[in-house]
């Protein structure tokens, strides 16, 4: 244990950022034990995680941010990947898809705060956990204060911090929190943790600094308010559902998911709360979405809200995206990083999104939630012992938040009870029903706009003052009973506009009883209050509503797939919205809004008895997508041929390495040691044969799913699987000298005695290990060949080696787009490559064969139609395919790669109104027919879009 440090090092000198950097009005961020505050106003922070590096299309950043905002999120949590920006020491690129200035502006335009998480370490199942692979060559333990590493991470921080600093809330921007490191409790280097914060402060960061602790617990770095390494607001990561997507009925196998309160002076911060999962067992992401679906969200998120009183949430992931290029950390993920998130990789909204929206709107609308204390005893007692309640109350307003759920959290029965509820405005008995694995947050004693809500057994989704009357949207499980009691000065007039609602008035209380069914509408006027339109829905009907703020005041819209934003123009309400099917659209807006325009469509409207506008939406067009024909192919791998000129390749002649894994044979053949960090590498070894050679013994480390292919004097000898870890061993485990062995007998007639023989080896580098446990043995794992011997009856024959990898970083697509295939080095993946001389597609022989075709698209204008590439048939382990769309490496397909058959072709990379080129690099281990059948498909179609 570390001793308690007495020195308060936080809050050191704050650098003033020039006024020119301001993007809006400056605000102050503070906090107390309840919540964050912006200019003294309390907020419940509801963030969703997004990785811009997994969606290399700036226009689509806007789409995702608008979708977050429309679900009631008020913040986005962003990791910044060092590896994505830095191809080599001292080299940094923040242009194009790496333009984080633009990213932050886009977040702000969408109305989101930003939790900035620049690491330096981020984990995130991305190559190196965000560390650039060149860092493996740097001395000094990673994630520590050791010298070499310190210089390196400071270099990154001094590039990224100034960008973040000029976008802080305090400078008029969106960045509200700065998260240092990632789950660093595995390590104990307080000086490192402190230095990250000192560098941030020196670079002008003046918003509160946070950190995310792993695994359900606080640690040395978070529970102390003072001392080196302590941050202002530590938070905790919780993944209660595990990552076992194959078992989607699991119910909290990794715990209760209650975020700890780490210190008395800070709010409870759920820094990463599970909202999806990595697909460790290759079950497919739909299963991950099921594992973390609406039932889980209802139970675990609401339990966390009321039981712990958390007011800062960040859900991991809100949108997952794609491990395009060599972005994946190969041991845990494949190309798709869909994550089973609420918004799919193709940006479609799922039932999980609906649940986020129901909860997000509630958090947004009901202000007393930002300041609550746990009630010592719950004021609401269910008559059925199968059910239980937990309550929090706002100490200023007295508003109660009653969590109603099963006493046994795993119960699957549906149970009824009468709730005997001592609410602030009186005691009432109300019938309730709870399904198994569900939970409800019920509110009592609440000033709902101009109304007084005594209590309701329906949940509040939102409410707003619209055109002089309160419109409130409440909801409950379809078929369950609901009671809402409102207080009036005198008997109000009650008009049930739709549905079956019974009203009774006594002692100033108006009691409404109903069953949740469709959408009931009740208009209450008089009674000494402004009018109230009460909308009583089910989970499903409530989720059809969208809320937006306009010049007419707030509006509620239902019948569209999405409302991105709304504006008032004269007497017209203009919606930027997505619509899919033909149907009705209903708008609750101030009477001044008489006309409706959705996108470019004027929508004819009539006024309903609810005072809303009713019109019709047009169905979206379904695109015709071309068949993929006209494939041409060309075999490459000239490197395998003995006569190939490798004289310009890098000599692989090092005898020492920075890797903590000593080489098993010399010279050192680790690809990173020669500056080849991503994708495939080629080796050519020359030796003069004595004639006694019988065998080639190789060993390669590639990361999971990798392989290597071997030729001698142009003859293909075969393939082997690459290893995952060159294990140096520890106290518990013996060293593993043989991580990825391949033994190849030299076929008779292949050797050329007394002269030059050429061994050619193509090794896949699937990406780099992360550094989750802050252990160089794991992070500084070699890639490429780790041992090579030409063996024979009289010992080993000396070999001289050369190595070749990627030809530098692609200026547009970045350092992770390409490896060192011959075709990549010669631009066969690029749309401009002249392939006219290529032959009609032919089968692939062992080695690398490229297939190219182009197709024209002209998707319907004014639509958002995500397009994918589908591999038919069963993925074969005999080959793997790198898929290039217009030069962008959008993923890898193959039986050994993962379960994925559909690959997202994001707009921006895909030209939706022009010619597109697909280039496939097929690495075959055996002769195969080729990568087919292949087709384009649309994931969906909506009118509208970002
Ligand atoms: C957390 C980590 C994230 C991500 C997540 C699993 O522990 O902080 O970066 O790796 O696990 O997806």
3D architecture notes:
There is one protein chain. The protein has 946 residues and is mainly β. The protein folds into four domains: 2-349, Glycosidases (TIM Barrel); 369-617, Beta-galactosidase, domain 2 (beta-galactosidase, domain 2), CATH 2.102.20.10; 637-804, Galactose-binding domain-like (Jelly Rolls), CATH 2.60.120; 821-943, Jelly Rolls, CATH 2.60.120.260. Helix content is 12%, strand content 35%. The protein has twelve helices and 56 strands. Strands 4-5-6-7-8-9-10-11 form an eight-stranded parallel β-barrel. Helix 4 packs parallel to helix 5 (190-202) and helix 8 runs parallel beside helix 9 (351-365). The chain is elongated. The two termini are 52 Å apart. Residues 1-22 have low confidence and may be disordered. Beta-D-galactopyranose (GAL) is lined by residues 123-125, 182-183, 214, 237, 272, 278.
Strand arrangement within the widest β-sheet reads 4-5-6-7-8-9-10-11
Percent in helix: 10-25%
**Radius of gyration, rounded?**
30 Å
Name of the CATH superfamily of the largest domain: Glycosidases
List ligands, each type once: beta-D-galactopyranose
DSSP strand tally:
56
Structural class: mainly beta
Mean pLDDT: 94
Instruction: Report how far apart the termini are.
Output: 52 Å
Number of domains: 4
| CATH T-level fold name of the largest domain | TIM Barrel
Helical element count? 12
**Uncertain spans, ≥5 residues at pLDDT below 50?**
1-22
């Amino acid at each position: 244990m570390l001793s308690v440090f007495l020195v308060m090092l936080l809050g050191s000198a704050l650098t003033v950022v020039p006024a020119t950097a301001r993007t809006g009005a400056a605000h102050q961020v503070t906090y107390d034990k309840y919540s964050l505050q912006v200019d003294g106003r309390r907020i419940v922070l509801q963030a969703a995680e997004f990785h811009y590096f997994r969606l290399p299309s700036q226009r689509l950043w806007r789409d995702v941010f608008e979708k977050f905002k429309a679900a009631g999120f008020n913040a986005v949590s962003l990791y910044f990947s060092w590896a994505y920006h830095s191809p080599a020491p001292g080299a940094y690129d923040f242009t194009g898809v790496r333009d984080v200035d633009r990213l932050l502006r886009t977040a702000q335009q969408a109305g989101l705060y930003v939790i900035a998480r620049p690491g330096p370490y981020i984990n995130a199942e991305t190559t190196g956990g965000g560390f650039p692979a060149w860092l493996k060559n740097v001395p000094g333990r990673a994630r520590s204060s050791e010298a070499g590493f310190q210089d390196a991470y400071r270099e990154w921080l001094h590039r990224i911090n100034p960008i973040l600093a000029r976008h802080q809330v305090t400078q008029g921007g969106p960045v509200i929190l700065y998260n240092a490191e990632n789950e660093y409790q595995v390590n104990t280097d307080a000086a490192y943790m402190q230095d990250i914060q000192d560098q941030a402060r020196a670079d002008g960061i003046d918003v509160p600094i946070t950190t995310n602790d792993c695994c359900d617990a606080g640690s040395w770095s978070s529970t102390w308010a003072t001392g080196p390494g302590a941050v202002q607001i530590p938070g905790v990561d919780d993944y209660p559902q595990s990552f076992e997507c194959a078992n989607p009925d699991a119910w909290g196998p990794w715990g209760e998911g209650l975020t700890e309160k780490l210190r008395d002076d800070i709010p409870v911060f759920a820094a990463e709360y599970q909202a999806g999962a990595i697909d460790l067992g290759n079950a497919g992401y739909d299963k991950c979405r099921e594992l973390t679906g609406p039932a889980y969200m209802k139970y675990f998120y609401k339990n966390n809200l009321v039981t712990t009183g958390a007011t800062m949430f960040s859900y991991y992931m809100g949108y997952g995206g794609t491990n395009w290029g060599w972005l994946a950390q190969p041991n845990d993920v494949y190309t798709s990083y869909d994550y089973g998130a609420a918004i799919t990789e193709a940006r479609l909204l799922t039932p999980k999104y609906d649940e986020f929206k129901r909860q997000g709107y509630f958090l947004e609308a009901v202000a007393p939630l930002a300041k609550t204390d746990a009630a010592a005893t719950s004021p609401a007692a269910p008559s059925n012992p199968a059910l239980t309640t937990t309550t929090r109350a706002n100490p200023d307003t007295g508003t109660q938040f009653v969590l109603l759920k099963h006493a046994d959290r795993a119960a699957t029965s549906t149970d009824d009870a009468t709730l005997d509820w001592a609410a602030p405005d009186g005691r009432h008995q109300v019938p309730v029903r709870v399904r198994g694995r569900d939970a409800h947050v019920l509110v009592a004693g609440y000033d709902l706009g101009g109304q007084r809500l005594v209590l309701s057994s329906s949940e509040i989704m939102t409410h707003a003052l619209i055109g002089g009357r309160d419109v409130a949207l409440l909801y409950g499980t379809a078929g369950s009973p609901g009671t809402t009691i409102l207080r009036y000065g005198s008997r109000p007039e009650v008009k049930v506009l739709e549905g079956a609602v019974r009203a009774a008035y006594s002692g100033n209380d108006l009691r409404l009883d109903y069953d949740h069914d469709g959408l009931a509408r009740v208009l209450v006027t008089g009674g000494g209050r402004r009018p109230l339109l009460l909308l009583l829905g089910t989970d499903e009907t409530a989720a059809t509503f969208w809320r937006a703020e306009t010049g007419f005041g707030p509006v509620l819209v239902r019948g569209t797939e999405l409302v991105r934003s709304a504006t008032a123009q004269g007497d017209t309400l203009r919606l930027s919205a997505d619509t899919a099917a033909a149907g009705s659209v209903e708008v609750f807006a101030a009477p001044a809004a008489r006309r409706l325009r959705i996108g470019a469509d004027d929508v004819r409207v009539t006024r309903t008895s609810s005072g809303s506008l009713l019109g019709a939406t047009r169905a979206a067009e379904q695109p015709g997508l071309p068949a993929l024909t006209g494939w041409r192919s060309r075999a490459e791998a000239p490197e395998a041929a003995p006569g190939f000129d490798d004289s310009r390749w890098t000599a692989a002649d090092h005898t020492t390495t920075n890797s903590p894994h000593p080489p098993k044979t010399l010279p050192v053949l680790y690809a990173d040691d020669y500056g080849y960090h991503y994708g495939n590498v080629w080796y050519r070894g020359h030796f003069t044969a004595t004639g006694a050679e019988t065998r080639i013994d190789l060993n390669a480390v590639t990361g999971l799913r990798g392989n290597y292919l071997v030729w001698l004097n142009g003859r293909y000898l075969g393939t082997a699987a690459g290893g995952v870890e060159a294990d140096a061993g520890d106290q518990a485990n013996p060293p593993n000298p043989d991580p990825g062995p391949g033994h190849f007998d030299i076929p008779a007639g292949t050797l050329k005695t007394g002269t030059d023989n050429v061994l050619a080896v193509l090794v896949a580098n699937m990406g780099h290990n992360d550094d989750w446990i802050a252990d160089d043995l794991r992070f500084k794992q070699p890639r490429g060949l780790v041992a090579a011997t030409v063996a024979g009856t009289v010992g080993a024959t000396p070999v001289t080696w050369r190595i070749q990898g990627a030809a530098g970083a692609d200026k547009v697509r970045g350092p992770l787009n390409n490896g060192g295939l011959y075709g990549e080095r010669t631009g066969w993946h690029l749309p401009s490559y002249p392939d006219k001389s290529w032959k009609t597609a032919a089968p692939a022989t062992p080695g690398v064969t490229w297939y190219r075709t182009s197709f024209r698209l002209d998707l319907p204008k004014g639509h958002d139609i995500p397009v994918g590439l589908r591999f038919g048939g069963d993925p074969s382990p005999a080959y793997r395919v790198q898929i290039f769309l217009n030069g962008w490496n959008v993923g890898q397909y193959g039986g050994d790669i993962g379960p994925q058959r559909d690959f997202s072709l994001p707009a921006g990379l895909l030209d939706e109104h022009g010619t597109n080129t697909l280039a496939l690099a097929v690495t075959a281990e055996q002769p195969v027919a080729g990568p087919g059948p292949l087709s384009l498909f649309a994931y969906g179609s909506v009118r509208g879009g970002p």
